[in-house]
Amino acid sequence: MRRLTTLLAAALVAGPQGKPRAPSQPGPDSVIAQLYRDFAWEAVLDVSSAPTQVLIDQPRPVLRRYFDDRLTALILQDRACAARTHGICRLDFDPLWASQDPDGAHGVKVQSPDSLNVVRVALRYTNGYEVALGYRMSRTKEGWRIADIDYASGPSLLTILSSKH
Fold first, then answer.
1. Other beta carbons less than 10 A from residue 7's beta carbon
2. 121 touches 108 (CB < 8 A)
3. What is the pTM of this model?
4. Is 3 a member of any domain?
5. How far apart are CA 138 and CA 134, in angstroms?
6. pLDDT digits (tens, 9 = 90+) for 104-157
7. In whole angstroms, how far apart are CA 92 and each of 75, 87, 160?
8. pLDDT(19) > 60
9. Torsion of CA 150, 154, 156, 161, to 10 degrees
10. SS3 sequence of 3-53
11. Is residue 5 part of a domain?
């Protein structure tokens, strides 16, 4: 009886194919929802009481939680350029909010990904203004990561950061 109980317990742990179950990775929309949970304070808290740096100023390991390697490298290059020149290089807005000033945002709606793994996000501002973003997601060995952000009002984040000027 004891042996049977041990075998049943092992079968339940191993799953139907007899292999250990891999922990499930969050889907692309879960990554984007977590991104906004982690950094929504940018829009809703007074900057003087901000708990940490804004997303774009985070160290490489934090950026890599959300962005693929290419986009992470481009963000870091732009940040190094801004530090070196003491000015704006390619990025002159907050990519998460598609705005230079995210104050006033009061709603974020994250939709399930479409067949191309694009997660749509609708941002609502207190003045009734709405902004739509399209997060192009790619599956990496670490899980889903942002490969690009499409903005309705202009070029994508990857295009902006890759441009020569």
1. 10
2. yes
3. 0.78
4. no
5. 13
6. 677 899 999 999 999 999 998 888 889 999 999 999 999 999 999 999 989 999
7. 12, 10, 10
8. no
9. -150
10. HHHHHHHHHHHHCCCCCCCCCCCCCHHHHHHHHHHHHCHHHHCCHHHCCCC
11. no
Domain containing 155 — which CATH number? 3.10.450.50
102 exposure class (CB count in 10 Å sphere: 0-12, 13-18, 19+): buried
Tell me whether residue 1 is in a domain: no
Full residue range of the structural domain in which residue 46 is found: 27-162
Tally of CB atoms within 10 A around 149: 21
Domain membership of residue 20 (yes or no) is no
Q: Which residue has the tokens 């804004």?
A: 54
Q: Which residue has the tokens 């104050």?
A: 103
Average pLDDT over residues 76-98: 93
Task: Write the single-letter amino acid at 58.
Answer: Q
Total domains, the chain: 1
